[in-house]
Amino acid sequence: MALRVVVTGAAGQIAYSLLYSIAKGDVFGINQEVELVLLDIPPMMSVLDGVVMELQDCALPLVKKTVATADPNEAFKACDAVIMVGAMPRKEGMERKDLLKANAKIFEGQGKALNDFAKKTVKVLVVGNPANTNCVLTLRSAPSIPAANFTCLTRLDLNRAQAQVASRLGRPCESVRNLIIWGNHSSTQFPDAAHGNVVGADGSVTSVYDAVKDDAWLTGEFVKTVQTRGSAVIKARKLSSAMSAAKAIGDHMRDWWFGTKEVYI
Hints:
single chain, 3-stranded antiparallel sheet
């Protein structure tokens, strides 16, 4: 049976990178059929029509149906997984409290729709920033769904940390494991390598600190680089992270869906 997967903010650049990964089986499995539900605001529906056409033109065998809608009630009906990418961006001159107020209206409304129409087993991943706050607003508006079914994205920060350590050691990214990101997806987060380890070419396992042999780097430049990576991308690209954010969303949902065995995320 096909999984009903909802992506909000589906006309945006992150979703544009994410939807193909979901559709070809990178997230829910290479044999798992999906029904894609693309949710966005009414002014974006013409853009969303173009996204639907592109998904159709990919001719992907796992996609059984694609629905585009501006109605959360329709989108969340009997859904199995929801990836909440859409959020109000912070505009010039906007104070943080104004951003929080605008997003509260969005996520409380979508939370109520989840409560009324989604499966009680639905897994909800909140991406739109401030993700932690928006996640709490959503789950509080959906009391009939277990709180454990709601998570928010810090996997992008984890992937950034993993890549920095791997680059420092000249090792593949997948050889670096069990790093931790403490705090929000913001410049106040703390990437923590204290519990991390590195798998060597011979299969031996060494702590990150013993492998790097540079405590000053791990507590200084490494931390700052991960904390400010998003700003660095914007400065270089003139746009916020999209490809890496989409990859992190897929990683997060896949590992939540299937589990990670001996590795913790």
